[in-house]
Amino acid sequence: MRLEKLVLQGFKSFADKTSFDFTKNFTAIVGPNGSGKSNVSDAIRWVLGEQSMKLLRGKSSTDLIFGGSDTLAKMGMAQVELHLDNADGLFPLEYQEVVISRKMFGDGESEYRINGSKVRLQDILMLLAQAKFGQKSYAVIGQGMITQFLSATPQERKLFFDEATGVKEYQIKRDQAINKLIRTEDNLVQSEALLQEIEPHLKSLERQVKRLEKREKLEIELRDFQIGYYGSIWNELGIEFKNLEAESKAIQQEITTKDAELTELQGASDALAGEASRGERYQQLQQLFNDLLEKKSHLLKEQAVLKGKLEVEHERQGELSLIWLQRKEDELMSDVHAREAELRTTKQKLTADATELTRKDTELEAVKGEFRAEEFEIIKLREQIEQQTHAMSVPQITSELTTIFEEQEQFLRRLLQTQSMNEFKETQAAAKDITKKLATLMDRLTADERDTVESLRVEMKQKEQLLERLTKERETLQNRINDLRVNIASAENSSTFLHSQLTRMQDELSNIQSSIDETERGKDANSKSAQAEEYSKELLQFDAQIERLDKQLVTARADIDSFNQEEENKKTELVSIQSKMRTVQRHLNTAQQKASTIDVNLARVETRQEDVQNELQRDIPEDLHAEIMAYDPANQHLEGNRDVWEKKIISLQHQLDAIGNVDAETITEYESTKERFEFLDEQINDLSSSIGKLEGVIDELDKTIKTQFQKNFKKINDGFQEYFKVLFGGGKAKLELLTETEEEKLEEAEAEKAVEAAMAGAEVSVDVSGESLHDEKERELIGKKKKRQKVVAGIDVYASPPSKKVHNINALSGGEKSLVTIALLCAIIANNPSPFVVLDEVEAALDEENSEKLAAIIKDLSNKTQIVIITHNRVTMRAANVLYGVTMGSEGKSHILSVELTEAEEMIEADEATRN
């Protein structure tokens, strides 16, 4: 590895971007005082991570940024880049060139980068330690450090030799391991304390979890029994409900069928019994018949008058004809026989109608009897409802029901006393009004009360339907009785007329017979007068008219008989229909009673289902409801019957009550606590294992540090003696390790504090990791770390120039102290060369002879490492391969230029002349 380039911008006096290319092994930087050449060594020290402003020759971080001049403004940041050739892989990075850069802003914040990537200061220090140089190593020897080295304490020299012997990398690793060990031990203590704190709580939670597990087990068992118990009840109720629904559906279908059949029969009955036009038709037929009779009677009267006239004429003329009389006798006989037959028919009809009237009266009495029976039934229903309402303790309802049934009783009495159909219809409307009142009252009853009253209401409805049917049947009978009475009256009139006719004809027949007898005694029947012929013709016309009227009467009588026969057929059909209606009504009543019973049972099942649902809502978790509702006995696995299950449920509930409630979050808390306990236990094991491993690593690093330190220390000690003799031309010098006891260490610490307090602008010491001790927590951590470290040994320097017996180096002159330090420095470089070494006016106190010796040594060392020296010494300048000149321009910023030796000497002479 070698230093290739140094780039500065805004750092101290280097305002502009300035680049130093180090192409040779020995480069000298020269320049007059105040030109800023020493700022080059400060820049290298700063970019390598130096934090001490004293070593950087400043008071605050802002002193490192170009502060401006009369002509140039102050800059806002300082930046330094160090370009290193990593071809030999000394840096464990995959880069041929490694660029370490540091940038600082006006607020004092620093930013570190390696090849453009941001890194931490610790990363820079570790990387440099691996390459065997750093910000506290011998790689950069600044102004005053030569004399400070000899005046330093043995412990401070030890820090320098840690870099020189190459153990710094291992020390950093060891310090990191110690810091990690201390943190691990602290974590172990904290983890053990937490574990001790958690363990009692975990045991308590474990007991609660066991209770919870037992409770959950009992709850699962209780859940199974509850599902079995309530599920079987619900299943049985569901089956019973379905069966009742099926029965209800079937019976309702039967009721619908019977109701339709009854409606159809009622329609047929109404059609037969309610045809008003039939009565009008009968009246028309009867009126026609009566009109014909009256007309015939009138004709017969006129005929009789005419016949009387004819007879008078015949008597007057004595011209009665025997043949005519005989013919007339035959006609009268025929009429007599016809009238006698008609009279017999009329009497038979009258007798039949009278019999039918008697039978209808009997039927009417039967209907009235049915009315009375229904009255008794309704009175019984009223008593039942009154008893029910009395049991319900609802006085107002009882009062209203009493009022309703009083109205109903009055209605029935009016019904039995009803004589006309209008009165029937009024009482029927009253019945419907009573039913509506009862329905309204039922709406105010409770569910259980409504079930009882509903059953009675259904029965009442059946009675109402029967009452309506009886009303219609009575109306039909009354109409029929009225018809029969009309028929009887008509028959009686006809019979009376026929009797009178028959009497008249018999008288007329008797007269004719007498005339025939007289004629036979010799009267001339052939003599006729013109007037008699005229009368005879008129009589013939009367006979024709009477014959036509007789035919019309026969037709009218036939129509009346046909009408009566139709009415009789209708009556027979109506009786048959009414008989069927009674049969259907009985079946309907039975079906309705059965439907009422089914409805009551359905209501009972529904009530029980509601009770079960209320129990489920009250006592059973909601998540079980679906399983209970879907219970299948085929999948039932519980032993025993429902009574056993009920007892088991009670027992399990008692056990759960004894256990008490356990917070459901307990198991979550237990799991998290257990997980934390196991984590801490595992962490303690891991920490204990890590502590053992870290202690092993620290022991190994201690051994490595001790072995390498002793090995390289011996080489440096030998080299120190050789270079001492070269520089002093003889004499003796050696390095000696100092061991300390703990008491000596404490005394030395007190002495160090005194020295630090005495130093003006004293800087805080920096440990091997470069961290400040101001922070109390870090101070405590370092104290713990030092307790684990081996007792730190110091290094003392003994030097005795030729012809002198001096043991204490403080007795040497300044030049001698410089030579001793330079001899030691050369020994270190020769034994453990850094990739590059920067020397800042280390030979300032040497005379020309010693400068030549040092120049020869540096020249020789440049073959082992890259040397960059800042100097005023001509001898040193002559030995260098490359010279850089640094000058200060009028604008107050540093410039560099490559110069020849003569130019450099002129610059030195000019600078000396200026100082003189």
TrEMBL record:
Domain RecF/RecN/SMC N-terminal residues, every copy: 3-894
Keywords: Coiled coil
InterPro entries for this protein: P-loop_NTPase, RecF/RecN/SMC_N, SMC
Record-given protein name: RecF/RecN/SMC N-terminal domain-containing protein
Keyword hit for Nucleus: no
Matching PANTHER family: STRUCTURAL MAINTENANCE OF CHROMOSOMES PROTEIN 3
A UniProt-annotated Pfam family: SMC_N
Coiled-coil residue spans: 167-302, 453-566
GO MF entry, a single one: ATP hydrolysis activity
The keyword Coiled coil belongs to this UniProt entry's keyword annotation: yes
